[in-house]
Amino acid sequence: MREAVRDVNLDLEALTRRLTRERYGRAGRNALRLTVLATRICPYGLVRPHLGGSVPHVIDDAVEAAAVGILALGDR
Asked: CB 3.0–4.6 Å: which of 2, 11, 14, 24 could bond 31 by disulfide?
């Protein structure tokens, strides 16, 4: 099974690096961490309590606001 899943996240990792470079002009460790937090970890945390049911529409706005705020941390 290891062989079957070894490369499963390569496309996601490449996209994350591309988005990070587009946003910050670099893809260093801290910039990558912020991008992952803003685009994967935080959105999942906001949606997770609603899995299996309906997700309130206000969550869309919360995810966007959180992502924008997290990405702005890299501008300091």
From this structure: 24
Domain span holding position 17: 2-75
**18 and 34 in contact (C-beta within 8 Å)?**
no
Q: For residue 54, how many other CB atoms are within 10 A of its CB?
A: 6
Q: How many distinct structural domains can be found in the chain?
A: 1
* Best CA proximity match to 50, nearest among 39, 60, 40, 35: 60
pLDDT digits (tens, 9 = 90+) for 62-76: 999 999 999 999 997
Residue 74: partners with Cβ closer than 8 Å, 6 or more residues away: 23, 24, 30, 31, 34
E strands present in 1-76: none
